[in-house]
Amino acid sequence: MPRTSIDSVTRDRARRLRADMTGHEVLLWTKLRDLRPYGANFRRQAPIGPYIADFAWLAGRLVIELDGDHHGHDDGAKDRVRDAWLESRGFEVLRFWNNELTENLDGVLDTIFQKIVEHGADPTPPAVPAVDPPRKGEGSGSRLPRRKPKG
C-alpha cells in the first residue's frame, strides 16, 4: 500500500507505538531483525490502511501480531475484523500470545521462519564473506598517539 494512503493520525500513532514498545515486542523485534539476511525485512508498528500491525513484512505480505491480556475482552471480535481486512488485501496474519513468546520462543520463531519461506524468503543462510588479514602496516585499526612536532 503506498505511503500516501496512510493518514497522518495513523502514521503519528505508529511512531508513538514504536517509541513505547512492550517487552514482548522488543524481544520479538530483535529476533525478526535477524531474518533480514534471508530477505524478510520486517517493519515494526507498521501502518497498513487504517490499522497498525505490530510487525509487517510488506513485500512478503506477512503480518505478525502479539496479543496480550487486553485482547481477550471482546472475544477477539475486533481482531477478526482487522484480520479479515488485512487478508482481503493479500496479507497473512500470524497471531501469538505474549506467553507463547515467553514460554516457547523457539517454537514461535520456527513457525515464523516456515512462513517467511512460504512467502518467498530464501531459506539458505547467506554466505559469510571471508575476512582477509590486514595488510602490512594496517594492523587492527588501533593507532599510536601522534608525536608533537619539535619546535
Distance between the termini: 67 Å
CATH topology: Endonuclease, Chain A
Q: What is the total number of structural domains?
A: 1
CATH class: Alpha Beta
The average pLDDT value, as a whole number, equals: 84
Total count of strands: 4
Low-confidence stretches: none
**Element-level helix/strand string:** HHEEEHEHH
User: How are the strands of the biggest sheet laid out side by side?
Assistant: 1-2-3-4
| Count of alpha and pi helical runs | 5
* CATH level-four homologous superfamily name: VSR Endonuclease
Percent helix, as a range, is 25-40%
Largest sheet: 4 strands, mixed
**Strand residue percentage:** 15-25%
- Rg, Cα atoms, Å: 22 Å
Which secondary-structure class do the elements indicate? alpha+beta
- Which term fits the overall shape? globular
**Which CATH architecture is right?**
3-Layer(aba) Sandwich
Protein name: Very-short-patch-repair endonuclease
GO molecular function, one term: endonuclease activity
Region (Disordered): 120-151
Keywords: Endonuclease, Hydrolase, Nuclease
